[in-house]
Amino acid sequence: AVLVADDVYLDGNERLAATGNVEAIYNGRRLQAEGIVYDRASDRLILTGPIVIQEGEETLILASSAEIDQEMENGILRGARLVMGDHVQMAAYELQRVNGRYNVLSKATVTSCRVCEDKGPPIWQIRAERVVHDQLEQQLYFENAQLRVLDAPVLYLPRLRLPDPTLDRATGFLVPSLVNSS
Fold first, then answer.
1. What pLDDT, on a 0 to 100 scale, did the predictor assign at position 66?
2. What is the torsional sign of CA 59, 168, 178, 132?
3. Helix or strand or coil: residue 137?
4. Can you tell me the distance from the alpha carbon of 22 to that of 36, in angstroms, rounded to the nearest whole number?
5. Distance from CA of residue 63 to its chain's centroid?
6. CA dist., res. 64 & res. 33, Å (int)
7. Does residue 27 contact residue 52 with C-beta atoms inside 8 Å?
8. Cα–Cα 20 to 30 A to 68, which of 2, 3, 79, 111?
9. DSSP classification of residue 43
10. What is the three-class DSSP state of 180?
11. What is the pLDDT of residues 154-165, one digit of tens each?
12. Residues 6+ apart with CB under 8 A from 13
């Protein structure tokens, strides 16, 4: 692992703290945060945000605070946003990473529309109590989902499965995209 920060210091015998423009690189993942505390006793990283985790070239995770393991494969991120390529944005109250394979989003909103700076609702979105992103199978599983157009509920779906945008070919519902050209 590589750790770069403005200040790095030991806080007792069990904690290493880094603050100010912190950047860590480990196993192809790049982590940027305002502060990181590594607790050796619990083998956990405690992150203060804003937090940016980049996984490869397709996936970006943004959060306000987090507590994850040192491999960045298991843990909880609060106030999270998962951006996949330029196609899909998922925002959630809480994102739980499980076994480096699943991202479980609680109270989530998913859209492929560009979210405007004026904070207005996207043209379409799917809101769900829970969304599970299986990175290995490249699938999104929704529980108690609502399709909303201009923030008005249009369709309720107790269960829904969609391919994630990194999958080249899939059957089932595909994420719609809006194209405008001259």
1. 93
2. negative
3. coil
4. 7
5. 7
6. 9
7. no
8. 111
9. T
10. coil
11. 999 999 988 887
12. none
